[in-house]
Amino acid sequence: AFPIKESKLISILPQDSSLLGQNAKILVKLPNGSSEYYFLKIATIGTTGSSLCEGEYESLKAIDSVCPGFVPKPYGWGKCKENGEDAYFLLEEFRELKTKPADPATLGKQLAELHQKSQSPTGKFGFHIKTSHGRVIQQVDQWDACWASLFGRHLSHFMDVAKPVFDWPEFDRLCDLTLERVVPRLLLPLQENGRVLKPSLIHGDCWDGNTANDAKTGNAIIFDACSFYGHNEYDTGNWRASRHKLSNGEYIRAYKSIIPPSEPVDEWDARNILYSLTFNIGNAVYIPGSDQREAVFHDLAFLCQAYCPDFSSLSYPFPVIEVENKLDIY
């Protein structure tokens, strides 16, 4: 059913498809005789599509309640049929896009506003349901006062998805060491020595393809969200990869001019590498032709060598890794 009762479908205009399903711009006639466009997304990835559509619906609803207009307004989601197979749909407001991605100044300002204004309903990190980063159902539906604990579970699930795909014993060992040593070493200090870390509502997958400037207002708009309440810096982890236009230093400088790095400031870049892992693992596992498998391995090796003092004595025969594309935060 459409948001306005007794609306009638006039036409369906297919839009760009994705690895997850089909998209369409649909035109409906309203009871008063006027017409309205909506955006329809159909996920054809089995039962994961349920988490994808429900998670995005709840994510957009949460973001819209804090920053109206920053996302398309969501209207509903549910189960449907596509070519005779079970599928899931999400119906939302149609927004005409101008430029993609959004320009640095407007995106940085509006994303920072979301992070600053949002308030966790429990005062903790997490979300009230699982959300889905592509085909990976995120383990974020357990409220936790400790960000290191929540992020550790979140990252661990991505690693569990990747291990059988990579089939690389050295990768498995680096993953385990990262969870055991690096995550607590880098993230626990955010909430120690009197430091308070605010759980911010994050987009969850902010990259070039999920942001644009609105054709009517010129403001930034974000979509395809898989949100939860986390450390605000997590949203910029996806800006590190050189494959993204958001890796342009103007984006991170625009953002941090409003929200500076958390203390300890000198560990910002290492946290950025850590936060980039989920995005790059997802890319490596599910994007055809991805070159991120080795990049993820190198980042893991760098973090382990930098933050595990006894790394060299742990029988990890890895070379010293030089990290490229360090983001300028000063």
UniProtKB/TrEMBL annotation:
Looking up Gene3D superfamilies in the UniProt record yields: 3.90.1200.10
Organism's domain of life? Eukaryota
Q: Which reaction does it catalyse?
A: N(6)-D-ribulosyl-L-lysyl-[protein] + ATP = N(6)-(3-O-phospho-D-ribulosyl)-L-lysyl-[protein] + ADP + H(+)
What molecular functions are annotated in GO for this chain? protein-ribulosamine 3-kinase activity
- E.C. no: 2.7.1.172
What protein does this entry describe?
protein-ribulosamine 3-kinase
Naturally occurring in which organism (per UniProt): Amniculicola lignicola CBS 123094
